[in-house]
Amino acid sequence: MKNNNGLLFEGPSQTPDFPVRISFNDSRNAVNDSDRLVYCHYHDEIEFNYVIEGSIVMEIGTQRIQVQAGEAVIINGNEIHSGYCEKEAHCRMFGIIFKLDMLGSQEPDVCQSKYLEPFLCGQYQFPSYIPNKPGWQAKVIAEMERIVVTYQQQNFGYEWRIKSSLFSILAEIIANKAFLTRNEQSVMPSERLERFQKSISYIQEHYIGKITVEDLARAAGISVDHFYKFFKQISGETPVTYVNRHRTRIAANLLKYTDLSVLDVALQSGFDNVSYFIKTYKKYTGLTPSAWRKQKHK
Predict the structure, then answer these.
(1) Pairing state of beta strands 55-60 and 63-68?
(2) 193 - beta bridge partners?
(3) pLDDT by residue (tens digit) across 3-20?
(4) Beta strands of 69-135 (E only): which ranges?
(5) pLDDT in tens, 138-169
(6) How many CA atoms lie within 13 A of 292 on its CB side?
(7) Domains along the chain?
(8) CA 61: distance to chain centroid?
(9) How far apart are CA 148 and CA 90, in angstroms?
């Protein structure tokens, strides 16, 4: 694994009543001090990742899946995941992140009770790997591509088209019984991942304030002496680098989706020194905050 990476910026949902967002990774956006293209994290939403170029190794829980261009992986809710480019080649990938319960209805019917609810309660899970081969897999990948194009164009009615594609993906997986049942789901060595999850939860909840390695070790229930190696083994980066990258991601969303000044963005993303913020932001994105904002608003 090499330092051949790009920051992934997951924008917030444009509207609370349409909880869908798109992420994009490109290894040509160099990031230092990490071997991850997709930094190690988790969220309660479902995520579809489709590789556009190159080969990416996705680590989902304890699974390690090599995904080629034209193939996809699905991240179930609260699964720890990260990814890196294979063989130092360039790679690109987009992600579709959404709340599964948006497919539910106010008047429950058999579709919801028989098929959707098992996914929502964890009885069923999406398959992790979708190869690009004829049949339902090709149809699922085609719908993923359609969602991204529709989201980018945002023509009138685009929300309906995206929701229709999400229904189509779910329908293909259900009709072909490609989902995993609770008994078939891989059993992770929960103690290590749960400890790691506690440490990154602490970062997500306290990133605005001061965070020390001692704080993270305490949250994970591990001694400080062992925590550094433990954290880097799972995440691929040091705790300090991880915290700075997380704050940079928060800052990127604030720069893109708000009119806050650079100083206010720094403070609200956990940097108490604007000079250090500008230096760190440029280190991970290649641009100063002001230049990055200007580029994104072109």
Answers:
(1) antiparallel
(2) none
(3) 333 344 444 445 668 899
(4) 72-75, 81-85, 92-98, 124-125, 129-130
(5) 999 999 999 999 999 999 999 999 999 999 99
(6) 26
(7) 20-181 (2.60.120.280), 190-296 (1.10.10.60)
(8) 13
(9) 21
